[in-house]
Fold this protein.
Amino acid sequence: MREGEWKEDWEEEVEEELADDRNMESCKRATVGGGGRKKEIKKERKKERERRENDNDRKTDSIVKLMERKRVLEREGEEKERREEKERERDQRREGKKRSEGERKERREIHGNKKGEK
């Protein structure tokens, strides 16, 4: 072997070893801490799960609010019905009083106003 060939072979071997070393370092960096991509996937899944839970909580809250609103409206409707019923009864009593007053006047006219005759 000539000196030039030996030097070229040696440089190629050194370059290959350096490339292997670099490759090994990058592999080590990739595997340190249990693999980067796997952790990313776990984080993404956790975020997705939390988002779904928050959505479910919001939906549940909105359903609860709607149910409460429905109960309030029903209660208000019942109160309104009671008030209307009381008003009808009051109106009927008033009409009854008016009718009875009219009947009294008629009786007075027919039988005479005994109070006024004094």
